[in-house]
Amino acid sequence: MSKSRRRTSRPREKAPSGSPAHHAGDGAAAPARRAGGHRVQLSRRGVPVSPGVAIGRACCLHEIFPGSDVELPDDDAVLRELARYDQARDQAARDLKALHQKVSSQLGQRAAAIFQVHESILHDPALTAKIRAWIVESRHTAPAALRKLLDEYTALFERTSDEYLRERLADVRDVVARLNQHLTDVASPPSQMSGPVILVANELIPSHVITLDKREVVGIVTQVGGRTSHAAILARGHGIPAVSGVPGILHEVVDGDLLVVDGREGHVVIHPDVETARAYRRLRREFVDLKDHLAHNRDQPALSADGEPVELLANISNLSDVKAATSMGACGVGLYRTEYLFLTHHDVPDEEEQVEAYRAVIAASPGRRVTFRTLDVGGDKKMRYLGLEHEANPFMGWRSIRLSFEHPAFFLTQIRAVLRAAAPEHGPKKRVGLMFPMITTLDELRRVRSLVRRAYRQLERDGLPFGQVPIGLMVEVPAAAVTVRQLAREADFVSIGSNDLVQYLTAADRDNPKVSHLCQPLNPAVVEVLYQTVRACLDMGKPVTLCGEMAAAPRPFLLLFGMGLRSYSMSPAFVPIMKELAKKLSQSDTSSIVERARKMPTTKQIVGYLGRRLAEICPDLSIVDSAG
Prior knowledge:
Layout: H1 3-9, E1 42-45, E2 47-50, E3 53-61, H2 75-107, H3 109-122, H4 125-137, H5 142-158, H6 163-187, E4 197-201, H7 209-214, E5 217-222, H8 230-238, E6 242-244, H9 249-252, E7 258-262, E8 267-270, H10 274-294, E9 311-316, H11 319-327, E10 333-337, H12 339-343, H13 351-364, E11 369-373, H14 400-406, H15 408-421, E12 431-436, H16 442-462, E13 471-475, H17 478-482, H18 484-488, E14 493-496, H19 498-506, H20 524-540, E15 544-546, H21 554-562, E16 567-570, H22 575-582, H23 587-598, H24 603-617
Parallel strand pairs: 3-4, 4-5, 5-6, 9-10, 9-16, 10-11, 11-12, 12-13, 13-14, 14-15
Antiparallel strand pairs: 1-8, 2-6, 3-7, 7-8
Helix pairs in contact: 2-3, 2-6, 3-6, 4-5, 5-6, 11-13, 13-15, 15-16, 21-22, 21-23, 21-24
């Protein structure tokens, strides 16, 4: 790597000329054009969530109501639009009936009742009359009528103080979204935008993965979310530069606007001038150069400076992520987020569908090594058929393993599917693990082990092949970290879920921009809890992996290595970077770094100290280092 490239990438405080650092009013909403149509460069700042620099045209993901500003030209068009709406309603009705039957058979009538509610909304005479009247009398398109209906109901429900009635708005939104989806599928023309695009959205949801696969997406900007939001995780998994937490960006940007996304510093530039664009293109080339430089290490083992093996595993959500993990040189999958199979499925995957999906992931994974995390929904990942309703504090409420316990038959089906996928007859030399999220007490761990034993007995009785699978827990709740020695005695392995652990330790919602500055992985309290957790597991001889986003950040990685941790699971795109860093680290040097950092009383001191040490140890990685 050339010295000139290192010099240009090092100054982190000095942004390119014309970048957000050179503009007043950073983060405030403002018009993107002066009178007369002249475009003005604007700068916004958000949370840097996936490093890199992207330049492309904006593709705005609003709520999709195609043709909502179009007036129907004549009576024939009105009749066609009425027929199109009726067709969409019939399709939505069939969807809801099928969902009700399937969920009822898998989860029971109580869980399926939500779809009966949605059917009643869909067929409500008043609702239907409103839609048809707006199409006939106002010559609105069906999507425009849906948009108007949603606006009217939103205003109506939000005026009431009755919490139950306010919650029904979510059901109306679901029905409108289902109708609109069928209208979109029938009539929405494909986007004519070509070339590199930057997705601009309120938030990125699992269904947007399809958009990532179909477009040349080079960057992502969202109005909400933080470093560990699902938008951030998704972007890092695809190696796409991203910035979250930019409020109002959808009101300032329209399709086709030229944008710059600086995912290391958290800058978004709208309509960059020539000088700014040139500076950011230079930074983008540096990132490309770094990736090219690290490409050679894909097939090399990950070793420390002492020659000690380091496990660099991948966090994945789907089969395409597995391919990325292999291409980036990961030695296995340390975390398969099984909930994405459910969130992106058209209804509810049954046992056979799960077995097929899990087998495919195992077969494609490096070393046929996969650790499955059971369903982790709730919080910001909603599955309506599980009865998830409004909670005052959903991240600390009825979610994850707690929700699984509420639906034991559903939970047991997933466990059976993993055990069946691990059967030796479907391929030798598998290394499959099963871990359970958000374990808080020893009783919970014993309860999941009991369910696994029941699954084994059922499969034996049914004559179905299965594999013997080690059982692990995720340490995400502070109570589990404090009692990790007791929990680890009854687990085969431990995985530290740093994303939630940091959030719970700091009592700060990672996706709330008002408090996200508190949700820092290098907070002294977090550092101490991680140290004690890692040391406890190592002292007991229990395999321990960290599979949060800390694993993919150079400064925390430096600290975790010094604690003795040798197994990390991360977004695939970061495996080559961490492999490069690992080969520069020795236990003697990094253990002294840990001891010094543990004595520092503030996050700022720890962040600054680790930044300086990282620059000394591996200056080439400064371009992907972030203090955030």
